[in-house]
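Example S7 (structure tokens).
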């Protein structure tokens, strides 16, 4: 067995996930394609089979432990090489998945990867703050998941407008994120959210958190603002 497969099976136990032979094969295919393309373009700084298994794949799959994803619609904002959205779709095929990234070359990579894996997902090049001004995307998702995109106050403005009232933002963060969360309290409230809970997990040696922000009312018109404004004066 490869070091990657071994790490996946070991880590899956830690997060209470059963990995079928078919899923393991799909994850291996994903990893190989990522490693191959990473030599040609900058997709990830994480190399090494164990690190990649823990920090990309298991970290993404950990979301299965904190949200009921069966048959739901999810958008992964700033997905990069597909994390966390694509591993989730492989594990839960009934998920309706949109992968969003502002970088065109990442979208090209993701389209090729989805074709290789035989996965149906909408891969969109665009900016979150622009997409959520479009009727078909604003308030359209049960969940928005995001990892390594921005600090929580900025993240809330980029992501919450895409979530439907009753849905949730799943913000993947380091374990120690309480200061960041406190700083974002006002932003979350203005945008129609409420912190529901912080889900703590360890898929590898590093402890991590998912901050679950429930959307309790529609985001008011006027949000999100332009990106320069969001960055310059975060809520
Ligand atoms: N989620 C991935 C990648 C994180 S890097 C992971 O955890 O591995 C952040 C990614 O967000 C980059 O690929 C960048 O192109 C994208 N991005 C930055 N700002 C964005 C925005 N406003 N809308 C959509 N994507 C954005």
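Recovered sequence:
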């Amino acid at each position: 067995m490869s070091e990657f497969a071994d790490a996946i099976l070991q880590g899956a136990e830690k997060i209470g996930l059963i990995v079928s032979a078919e899923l393991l094969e799909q994850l291996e295919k994903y990893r190989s394609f990522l490693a191959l393309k990473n030599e040609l373009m900058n997709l990830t700084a994480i190399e090494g089979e164990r690190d990649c298994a823990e920090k990309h794949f298991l970290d993404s799959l950990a979301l299965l432990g904190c949200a009921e994803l069966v048959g739901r619609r999810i958008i992964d904002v700033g997905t990069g090489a597909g994390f966390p959205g694509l591993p989730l779709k492989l594990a839960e095929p009934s998920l309706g998945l949109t992968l969003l990234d502002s970088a065109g070359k990442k979208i090209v990579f993701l389209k090729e990867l989805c074709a290789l894996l035989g996965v149906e997902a909408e891969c969109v090049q665009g900016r979150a703050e622009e997409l959520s001004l479009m009727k078909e995307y604003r308030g359209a998702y049960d969940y928005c998941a995001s990892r390594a995109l921005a600090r929580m106050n900025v993240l809330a403005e980029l992501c919450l407008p895409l979530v439907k009232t009753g849905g949730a933002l799943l913000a993947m963060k380091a374990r120690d994120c309480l200061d960041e969360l406190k700083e974002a309290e006002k932003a979350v409230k203005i945008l129609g959210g409420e912190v529901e809970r912080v889900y703590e997990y360890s898929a590898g040696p590093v402890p991590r958190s998912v901050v679950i922000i429930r959307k309790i009312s529609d985001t008011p018109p006027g949000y999100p603002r332009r990106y320069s404004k969001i960055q310059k004066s975060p809520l």
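Notes on this example. The mean pLDDT is 97.
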